User: What shape does this take?
Amino acid sequence: MTRYSEFRQATRRHAPSELIPAVAAAAALQVYEKDVAKWAKGVPPWAYAAMARDCLLYSDEHRYKKVDDQAIIWMRNILNDVYEPDERLVADIFAMISGYVYEQSFYQKDEMQEMARSYLLYTQTEVPEQYRIPSGPDWEEHLGLPLRLAITASFMLCAWAASNHGRVDPKFPNSAAYEPLEGLVSGADMNRVLDLLTTTVPVAKARAKEVRQLPNSLQRYAFNPLVERPFVAFDDGVRYAPQPKFVLRAFSTENLYYRGVKRWGNAFGQAFGARLEAYTGMQLQHTGKHQVLPEFEWRKNRTGKMRSSDWFLITPAATILIECKSARMSLDAKAGTGAADELLDRYVSHAYDQLGKNAAQIREGNPAFAHVPSDRPLLGLVVTAEPMFGANHVELRERFGTNELPVLTASLEDIELIASLDPRPWVMR
Assistant: This one.
């Protein structure tokens, strides 16, 4: 049994200015690798991210151990052998493996889809006037350039790092060699984005201290400041990307959410909920093939007004009631502390209750719901901002709901897939 502290000690044998460039060069070779099976034979991308993080946060420039291929393989082997159970943590299968899921699933996502979702959600989704801040111009003021250009620049920076051993020289956008690219992103904007995404050793250490610490047994899944700022600057002026795929993640929905909360406070969180709901409807309607009914208000009694489910997706096979929740997993929950249960209880169970009450109104023939088809099975769908691992486990569904209304939890990524499907039911042949 190997403790994570042994892996951390292995990374601390090297100075950050030596290990970070070496990891960046090695990780750059994987950027375009789509065969996940090959990761098992070499060093997986999450291992490079962990090496860079721990060296960045816990080592210093007084270390003199040489960095070579053998050293990197040795660190990988230690990480692969880490097993550090903690009896204080919840002994649950989802808690046990959730850390692995959130650590590794990102590298298997479609980066272009992630970028497109972020741009559409934050700048192209129509919401009521009170929720329009931040809109496109607000993001431009905050970032120093339009969000679309920032996302484009992040893609170019990733490609640049991948083709240059994980290195990016900020002098290049000011050179004649960059002129053919000026039409995509100007040199000034490119360096603006590069600066937004660059950290230093002191800044990274300070940022990590701001985040709630995990138990020792879960340090493998601790916060990585490179997720927010994937480039590291040293005295040579060159920027290194020890995990270039983090560059593509820099302006993801999740990263921009935390940028928005820091900039606009609680008002941003409320506006995000409205955007999540509107984006769900926009996706379901964009092909024109689906019949989608929006939320409406109905009177429960003389004094009380109620709101229906956020959306109703009508298909020949079923009527699907949809509740949108701006729920996201905390670092604790992702790491496997058992906090996921609390979050699911807080967000998902409430959505189950709302769906159940709306389904009851349809079944009971409430005139306010007369336009919602009741001549077919009723299904429920809870839509969350990001995937919530384990939310569809049978035990959780039985705990939250009843047999009267089958309910599943889906993320925005799932909604985009559902929206592209033909609404006609499958015909068995």
The chain is about 50% helix and 10% strand. The first strand starts at residue 167 and ends at 168.
